[in-house]
Amino acid sequence: MIESLHRGLIVSCQAYPGEPLRDARAMALIAQSAARGGAVGIRAQGLADVRAIHEAVDLPQIGLWKVSGDDVFITPTLHHALDVVDAGAEIVAIDGTRRPRPDGLTLAETIARIHERTGALVMADAGSLDDARAAEDAGADIVGTTLAGYTDEREKTDGPDLELLAACVEALTTPVFAEGRIRTPAQARKALDAGAYAVVVGTAITHPTSITSWFAQELADA
């Protein structure tokens, strides 16, 4: 399955709470549009969205469950991960940082139990090179740069953190997915040129509120 994603575009279909598109049916339609456009995989958040996209799109899906209230919020516990897989995700994305997990399990224990109980693959969302190395040691099948700039270990870059991406690619044997603040096709290509196994793009494709605001702000500044 991972090989089918190699050098391809994975589209993250997510909407924030309270937005007009915060609906599983809407996300499934966006996922279908992404598939028609050439996406090789889909990333989605929430059990309803994962289920709807699993039924609508015949592409590998990276599923996750965001839970507010703690620093570790991307599929924070084993329970959440198992439910995401049960909803139809072939790959489950989990917090891949070295921070304590709410259920007290280590990252290695979490990954091992996901593998044993479901057979699903695990994508560890990392925020630093040390996170990425620890995730690989813990048994992650994929490491993503998703949390670069969202923990206290690295500053948030304007655009993708290509420096971290290149460092992870050099240090790991595990496939490294570029994710985070990739806004243009040119940036996506730079991520691929930096060694990314695959590129994940969300907001710039699937979040019309943000895209509209970029245009509106540019015009307002003119």
From TrEMBL:
Q: Which Pfam families match?
A: NanE
Q: Does the keyword Ion transport apply?
A: no
EC number(s) recorded for this UniProt protein: 5.1.3.9
Q: Which InterPro entries match?
A: Aldolase_TIM (IPR013785), NanE (IPR007260), RibuloseP-bd_barrel (IPR011060)
Pathway assignment reads: Amino-sugar metabolism; N-acetylneuraminate degradation; D-fructose 6-phosphate from N-acetylneuraminate: step 3/5
As its record notes, the protein acts as a catalyst of: an N-acyl-D-glucosamine 6-phosphate = an N-acyl-D-mannosamine 6-phosphate
Cellular component terms per the entry's GO annotation? cytosol
Coiled-coil positions are none
Q: Which GO terms describe its molecular function?
A: N-acylglucosamine-6-phosphate 2-epimerase activity
Show the CDD domains listed in the entry: NanE
Is this entry keyworded Isomerase?
yes
Its BP terms in the Gene Ontology are: carbohydrate metabolic process; N-acetylmannosamine catabolic process; N-acetylneuraminate catabolic process
Keywords from the named record: Carbohydrate metabolism, Isomerase
The record's top EC class is: isomerase
Briefly, what is this protein's role? Answer: Converts N-acetylmannosamine-6-phosphate (ManNAc-6-P) to N-acetylglucosamine-6-phosphate (GlcNAc-6-P).
What is the similarity comment for this entry? Belongs to the NanE family.
Q: What is this protein called?
A: Putative N-acetylmannosamine-6-phosphate 2-epimerase
What's the source species for this entry?
Microbacterium pseudoresistens
